[in-house]
Amino acid sequence: MKRKILVTGGAGFIGSHVVDELIKRGNEVVILDNFFGKKNKLDGVNKQAEIIDGDVTKREDCQHAVKDVDAIYHIAAHAAEGQSVYIPIFNAKINIMGSVTILTEAINRGIRDFVFTSSIAAYGKPNTLPITEDHPLNPEDPYGVTKKTIEDYLRVYHELDRIDPYIVRFFNVFGPRQRMNDPYRGVIPIFINRCLKGEKPVIFGDGEQGRAFTYISDIVEPMCDMVGKRELINNPINIGNTDVWTVNKLAKEIMNIMDMPGEPEHVPARPTDVVLCYSDITKAKKLLGYRPRVSIPEGLKLTLAWAKEQGPQEFDYMTYFEIPKLSHNVYKEKTI
Ligand SMILES: NC(=O)c1ccc[n+]([C@@H]2O[C@H](COP(=O)([O-])OP(=O)(O)OC[C@H]3O[C@@H](n4cnc5c(N)ncnc54)[C@H](O)[C@@H]3O)[C@@H](O)[C@H]2O)c1
Questions:
Q1: Is residue 143 annotated as a catalytic residue, yes or no?
Q2: Cα(263) to centroid of ligand 1, in Å?
Q3: 118 and 45 belong to one structural domain
Q4: Are 191 and 250 in contact (CB under 8 A)?
Q5: pLDDT digit string (tens) for 47-64?
Q6: For helices 13-24 and 217-225, what crossing angle results, to 10°?
Q7: Is this structure's pTM higher than 0.90?
Q8: Half-sphere CA count of 227, side-chain side, radius 13 A
Q9: pLDDT tens digit sequence for 139-190
Q10: Which of 73, 86, 143, 157 is catalytic?
């Protein structure tokens, strides 16, 4: 059935791929995005989508965006985990107030289907691995706190019979259209951008942090498949790869594909970095028939082909800090 779907953050990395897939499946799509940090606003944005240049924290923009809409994918966020420690106010404004605002207007319009992109960051430091969905949510940084908080808001309004939330918790997604000029997040685009500039990857700590890096198509399909599956309503689900790579292995593979000699550089660790973190996807397999299809090396090759077309980019360092003392030296000195 063709539906009109609002995608907040639809001009961003994950959002733009979700928009493509929803349009491919015959839906009409409206995007609400403020193009935060994006140089060429419409790069990678599907031309068939209606675009609202607006802000999820502004009630009138949300009221305009939800008009005549059947379902919402709320993907907009300031999604920088490490950085959130020293910009707690900004982080809360976008990720909590923005989410609560779009949720409020969804409820006022009687829109039930509400997909929310949560994160493995909501779990915090794992007690057990792999992390299953019933693992306690003990986030270790303000970004993770916001994801947990919005999951709670969604549960509350679901219990009040006002919304049907579909909550996806994913982790370390990579692929074409991920911003390469953001020095605060996305180890893969940062390493690729450094290599494109002829500079070695910079690793925080010993590089033995392990992550299940997930190629973009492996999260987009399940996000588009899940709406309408009653058993997934208010039932958060882990989505992603199960192949765990260390950051050292990742840096070597990228340097190898890009023919870069030598070894990566190491700098002191960041205080909130979790050493090993990956999820159990049994629930997604069972309820969605989900299985990740793209291996990390395959995904890296696809991403690198796109990145080479873009060319090297200047890193865009923030000049705005709320707690500057907590900022890592590589950001203060702009040496990433
Ligand atoms: N990339 C990952 O590995 C990952 C992992 C887990 C969860 N997530 C979640 O997935 C979502 C998308 O992440 P992404 O990697 O595509 O990030 P992204 O930064 O590429 O996309 C976010 C989009 O939201 C928009 N946005 C930001 N503030 C806004 C505001 N106030 N009003 C309207 N639009 C606003 C941005 O302009 C951008 O287009 C986020 O909710 C993020 O927390 C991402």
A1: yes
A2: 32
A3: yes
A4: yes
A5: 999 999 999 999 999 999
A6: 50
A7: yes
A8: 23
A9: 999 999 999 999 999 999 999 999 999 999 998 999 999 999 999 999 999 9
A10: 143
